[in-house]
């Protein structure tokens, strides 16, 4: 929904992390740490077999080359399995230790950086964006809160035809933040600020510039020093250009000039910048999902504002400040040419789910990451099934870039999964 990724060897099942407590929706106190829900199953061999079958079924139906699925819950064990291939040319298997491009999960880091500046008193959520960036349409009335909550009314630069042509004709070229804003600002505003939810990458480019101005350094440096280091994420980075640590999976997309499926591994993610350029791996995303949902880097008051989820067009989905809730699961997803990821946390079970895959090609209008997450949660949390609107019917919750063509990838090989469940 809301959209660019490094090892070989068997997947592993790590012990579940220490329980998190989610900040209260209102007030300054955190809620007591709940006990894992009895409704969340033990991730034993029988559940693992069901999950294996469900993941294989989606893998086959969608022709996704490779996917890794991770589930963890205190007292329930863990499930970490990789299916399919990381490289369609060599047949190298997908693996849980690979770096991956995380697309719009970048938004969670950018907004966390912004909210840290709020806690420091350097910016205010109700400040107008025009105080920090000049030339923004409605810049005197669009607040930082409206930008982070996807209610600005600005045009999404990644839906501009000229942008799409520029990206697909030379996908290794760099883009500057100002170039991205120019693609947006040539269009009229879509609606008055705050009128409705409309997913927009332009908002995050602006917030990235705010972090740079108020933080006194580059966005990547600020996120490294104030978010990644304090959170202990040593396999997550904000790339300067197209660099991509090894080992990583190859990513495949049909968002191309020809409409044919191409290898997008080395495409320059600068076009996503604060909205979608970052790189991480399964274990770091596992850790980050809990940190994000529980607000350990923020004051309780600021985290409560972050988790003030407003409605979207989908009754099961709410959007806060750079974070969403889908039927109880809190976090974000990401999609950009070649890669998709989901990292979410279910507070009542203290459960974490991370899914990473190496294509963004839609299946019957749906993002494959959503299809995997839905299939997994139908088994482990049938009362909290992760679901997002399809990209074809809800473009505001679609990709970072313009809608892809209808070309489908060739069927991928599907070797047996690697990894084992841990009791």
Automatic annotation (TrEMBL):
Any one GO MF annotation of this record: hydrolase activity
Bias (Polar residues) ranges: 390-399
Start-end of Pro residues biased regions: 412-423
Keyword set, alphabetical order: Hydrolase
Top-level taxon of the source organism: Bacteria
A Pfam family it matches: Beta-lactamase
Biased composition (Low complexity): 401-411
Residue ranges occupied by any Beta-lactamase-related domain in the UniProt entry: 51-362
Hydrolase in keyword set: yes
Region (Disordered): 390-423
Protein name (database record): Serine hydrolase
């Amino acid at each position: 929904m809301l959209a660019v990724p490094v090892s070989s060897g068997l997947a592993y099942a790590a012990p579940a992390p220490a329980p998190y407590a989610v900040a209260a929706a209102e007030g300054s106190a955190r809620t007591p740490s709940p006990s894992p829900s009895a409704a969340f199953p033990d991730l034993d061999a029988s559940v693992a077999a069901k999950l294996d079958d469900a993941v294989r079924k989606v893998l086959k139906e969608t022709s996704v080359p490779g996917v890794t699925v991770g589930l963890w819950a205190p007292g329930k064990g863990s499930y970490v399995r990789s299916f399919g291939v990381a490289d369609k040319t060599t047949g190298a298997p997908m693996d849980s230790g690979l770096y991956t491009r995380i697309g719009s999960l970048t938004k969670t880091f950018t907004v966390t950086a912004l909210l840290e500046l709020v806690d420091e008193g350097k910016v205010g959520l109700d400040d107008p964006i025009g105080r920090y960036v000049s030339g923004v349409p409605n810049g005197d009335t669009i607040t930082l809160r409206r930008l982070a909550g996807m209610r600005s009314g600005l045009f999404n630069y990644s839906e501009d035809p000229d942008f799409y042509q520029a990206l697909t004709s030379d996908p290794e070229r760099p883009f500057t933040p100002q170039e991205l804003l120019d693609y947006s600002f040539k269009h009229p505003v879509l609606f008055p600020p705050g009128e409705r939810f409309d997913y927009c990458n332009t908002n995050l480019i602006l917030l990235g510039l705010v972090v740079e101005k108020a933080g006194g350094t580059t966005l990547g440096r600020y996120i490294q020093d104030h978010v990644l280091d304090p959170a202990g994420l040593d396999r997550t980075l904000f790339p300067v250009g197209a660099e991509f640590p090894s080992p990583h999976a190859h990513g495949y997309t049909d968002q191309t000039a020809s409409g044919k499926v191409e290898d997008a591994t080395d495409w320059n993610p600068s076009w996503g910048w604060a909205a979608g350029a970052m790189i991480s791996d399964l274990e770091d995303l596992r850790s980050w999902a809990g940190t994000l949902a529980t607000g350990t880097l923020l004051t309780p008051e600021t985290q409560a504002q972050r988790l003030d989820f407003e409605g979207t067009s989908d009754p099961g989905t709410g959007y806060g400040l750079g974070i969403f809730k889908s039927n109880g699961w809190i976090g974000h997803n990401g999609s950009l040419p070649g890669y998709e990821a989901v990292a979410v946390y279910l507070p009542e079970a203290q459960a974490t789910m991370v899914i990473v895959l190496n294509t963004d090609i839609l299946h019957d209008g749906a993002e494959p990451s959503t299809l995997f997450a839905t299939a997994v949660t139908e088994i482990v949390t049938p009362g909290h099934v992760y679901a997002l609107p399809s990209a074809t019917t809800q473009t505001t919750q679609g990709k970072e870039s313009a809608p892809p063509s209808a070309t489908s990838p060739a069927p991928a090989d599907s070797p047996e999964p690697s990894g084992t469940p841990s009791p």
